[in-house]
Amino acid sequence: MQVIVRDNNIDQxxxxxxxxxxxxxxxxxxxxxxxYEKPSERRTRExxxxxxxxxxxxxxxxxxxxxLPGPKRKPRPVNAARPGTR
Length: 86
Known about the structure:
The structure is a single chain. The protein starts with 9 loop residues before the first helix and ends in a 21-residue tail after the last helix. It contains three helices and no strands. It is flat and about 60 Å long. Helices cover 57% and strands 0% of the residues. The longest helix is centred in the middle third of the chain and has 27 residues, at 39-65. The protein folds into two domains: 1-35, no CATH class; 37-66. With 86 residues, it is mainly alpha-helical. Keywords: Ribonucleoprotein, Ribosomal protein. This is Small ribosomal subunit protein bS21. It comes from Oricola thermophila. InterPro entries: Ribosomal_bS21, Ribosomal_bS21_sf.
């Protein structure tokens, strides 16, 4: 994994690195590897994850087909006191 540091801005580079690691699932994997997980617990967890994924896919498919309402959208706040606008 590679992150480009622009203008010696380490804070921005760290943010980008953390976002990439989060997307790749590295944090979850590191947390899981901290302690030993019995094979039976691992199978149970993986089955639960598979069920969760399949339910999420079915829910998204139903939303696409119009059987379920889509996710609620947050209203955009109107900032009446913006400087520089008249």
